[in-house]
Amino acid sequence: MTSEETSEHRTAVIGNASNFWLHSSRTGFDLTHPPTPSEMAPGPRLKLETSTSPITLSPASSALVIIDMQNFFLSPSFGRTKGPGHKAADNLLNHAIPAARKAGIQIIWLNWGLSDEDLDKMPPGVMRAFGFQAIVETIEETAKGRPHVDPFRERPDSIGVDKHGDVRFRGGHASLENGKDGRIYKGLGSSCGIVTLANGEAVDAGRLLVRGAWNAALFPPLDAAFKEGEKLSEVPDVWIHKNRMSGMWGASTLCEEFLEAHGIKSLLFAGVNTDQCVSGTFTDAFSKGYDCILLNDCCGTTSPAYAQQCIEFNAAKTWGFAMNSEDFAKGVEEMEK
């Protein structure tokens, strides 16, 4: 290769007039979304080193989206032993959240938070993913049939079965089974019963992933971070409910409405489970034209390691970009004012 070829500088405009990136072979991808390709976006510029290329963001049009870091997925009261989700929480608390706040980046806590209306419209495939209720019929009932009951409401005489219809968990996703007693829940909206906290206190965990229930509350260390953030005078944290694994599915969601109202176009993703709710939201956001960056070490899953690796690979190579939380924090420390 000649010295002329190595010093060659290439530039590009990628996208369309209303949503475009700039690229330079020297400085990487510019995701600041200026008014025109020849102008600079107003405000500070945040330069980050991802696993594949440098990128530049505008903090004012960026958000850290933290997905499903809730008691049901992380609490020892549900038998959740320390694992990838807890490591992700540590990296959020130690690196990503402080960096986002220092840069003035919006923090969005995007969580399962179902209403009765959501449950009334929930499709069977989504219901099945969290187990479902089944009825054990006697020979007489099988022959004669049962008295009329509403088949779409939880019944006290039902039992919980896993997503395969089995009484005992046989694989698929460990977070749907209580690690202490092997209990399988009766699906979204069903009662989780009483759980015991680390201090010995018994609490009603509420209905599964229904807004306001204890099981749907943030895991305590992260709940403390949220409560601190929502009191900020500038760019306070926000909590947004979702009613599918993806928080960006369909024509519009509460999350998408918030992003559009606040001019947010670049999203840094974190949370659990990487290969389900995080990736579902990530890929839907990608398809809708948002800039997507995965914070690898701020995401975790109870699935096998290859599931995490698959999402990290595609996030970096096709859907957007990937990086770790320490590099994110380093970029913020060096941010242009």
Description:
The chain has helices spanning about 5, 70-75, 85-105, 115-120, 125-130, 140-145, 220-230, 255-260, 275-285, 305-320, 325-335, and strands at about 10-15, 20-25, 30, 45-50, 55, 60-65, 105-110, 130-135, 160, 195, 200-205, 240, 265-270, 290-300, 320-325. It has about 325 residues and is of the alpha/beta class. It has a six-stranded parallel β-sheet. It starts with a helix and ends with a helix. The model is unreliable at about 175-180 (pLDDT under 50). This is Isochorismatase family protein. Belongs to the isochorismatase family. InterPro entries: Isochorismatase-like_dom, Isochorismatase-like_hydrls, Isochorismatase-like_sf. GO terms for molecular function: hydrolase activity.
List the helices and strands and how they pair.
Layout: H1 3-6, E1 11-16, E2 19-24, E3 28-30, E4 46-49, E5 54-57, E6 62-67, H2 71-74, H3 84-103, E7 106-112, H4 116-120, H5 124-128, E8 132-135, H6 139-144, E9 158-161, E10 194-196, E11 202-204, H7 220-229, E12 238-242, H8 254-261, E13 266-272, H9 274-287, E14 291-300, H10 305-319, E15 321-323, H11 325-333
Parallel strand pairs: 3-5, 6-7, 6-13, 7-12, 13-14, 14-15
Antiparallel strand pairs: 1-2, 2-3, 4-5, 8-9, 10-11
